[in-house]
Amino acid sequence: MTTGTVREAVVGLLRATGMTTVFGNPGSTELRMFRDWPDDFTYVLGLQESVAVGLAAGHALGTRRAAFVSLHSAGGVGHALGAVFNAFRDRVPLVVVAGQQARSLIQLRPFLGADEPALFPRPYVKSARQPERAEDVPAVLAEAHRLAMTPPRGPVFVSVPEDDWDRPAGPVTPRTVHAAFTASPDALDALAARLDSCARPALVVGPGVDDEDALDLVRTLAERIRAGVWISPLSGRSGFPESHPLFQGFLPPTARQLAARLAPYDVVVALGAPVFTYHVADDGPPLAPGTELFHLDCDAGQAAWLPTGTSIVTTLRPALARLTALLGDSDRDPPPPRPAPAPARAEGHITPELFFDLLRARLPRDRVLVEEAPSHRDALHARVPVESSGGFLTTGSGALGWGLPLAVGRALADRRRVVCVVGDGSALYSVQALWTAARHTAPVTYVLLDNGGYAAVRALGRRIGIAPVPGTDIAGIDFVTLAQSFGCPAARAGHPGELPAALDHALGRGDDTGPFLLHVPVTGNAGTLYEPWAG
């Protein structure tokens, strides 16, 4: 076997696995990795490490392949952990490599060194290692790639001492892992029999459906059994066409309200969904009496902690194909379609409802919509239906700063224009992503809904009797000038009469042009993420 360096072996591995777009923020402990940087690789710079992880995550979701992200030593890992947390909870496959000081210095607790690098990102990675020997680095990274892509997918972390890159190592032969698996036929037979005999079935669709590209199979199953379809609380993806007559809406993240929404059904089948994602405690039961839960997901850990029901550990596509084949077309009455919201009225100011009505009329069906405007998420869901697999991305875990870089990485995956709706508070966590979008001519249209602060936090405070909440007001930021300073063209629409033409301009840019930011001050109905669940 011909022996080269660790760096040469890793470059060969990245090329063989399709990870030739590298996301990062470089530092001294990674410099040797960049020696003789190959011409067929692209380095995408994020101006802060959490931005780099968000960029990589968007690219991974767009390509449906793992992305490679490079972080700078212990401090860089610390900066990035909020985004790593999002990637872990949202099942985004990432190979995260962090620089480490030279092996000869590690025992001296050097400047920039990580004392226990494999412990630092846990528990929000699938695995974390620092190889014992330099020559093991390529094989450990190859294993990290396979693990990141194995269901449930997610980030895998490897710490590499900076002097390892020039050490000798042999090449790594790529391997294929066929990772889909399904439950025992008996378990699926029993579920099919229960669906045949029940009176009112429902499906709860989670991010796993979009992750496994199983939307068409879910739609076929829902139509066959005439089930009402809900999306799980605070889901980071869609997974069912939202204009479909069987679609019923979005489950709330409070126990009593969630149980009430599912109370009309005698059998509920959750698909790739952490059904009981709560955000506000109310001591309610997980489900109403008489509602029986079945839960299908590839994550054995999630199946273990679910507080009620029957879990079937399986990847979704083979299970759904078998389940649908076992079921005949039902003659039960379907649930009534969910009512459409009344059109918003143009008043003297721009409301979120008016904005989303205008967006819906202009948004092409094939566009990817990225959202990080927690105060207005309910209004978006009610007025802008998502129809396609991969058509909606947000954070399912709640760490802010995800949306702006996620949209850039997603746009770079296939160069289709992405539309990102972001709040003023969320944008300020990762505004540096606008520089990367401009630098790489990423086709992203940003619409920044400015309600003057952290309105979702204010709304939650009102719900629990805390008002006013200190530290929730943001004022005096010129987002147009800020975006332009990063090289991103921008404009402002502050009056309802200006908004239609401004949206046409922002959304009408071609896929071969770069980013654009539209700043839209909004008033009214702030904080709707929490207030409908106050009952």
Automatic annotation (TrEMBL):
Domain Thiamine pyrophosphate enzyme N-terminal TPP-binding stretches: 5-107
Keyword tags: Thiamine pyrophosphate
GO molecular function, one term: thiamine pyrophosphate binding
Gene3D superfamilies in the record: 3.40.50.970, TPP-binding domain
Top-rank taxon: Bacteria
Pfam families: TPP_enzyme_C, TPP_enzyme_M, TPP_enzyme_N
InterPro entries: DHS-like_NAD/FAD-binding_dom, THDP-binding, Thiamin_PyroP_enz_cen_dom, Thiamin_PyroP_enz_TPP-bd_dom, TPP_enz, TPP_enzyme_TPP-bd
Thiamine pyrophosphate enzyme central domain: residues covered: 189-323
Region feature (Disordered): 326-346
Family from the record: Belongs to the TPP enzyme family.
The protein, known as: Benzoylformate decarboxylase
Gene: mdlC
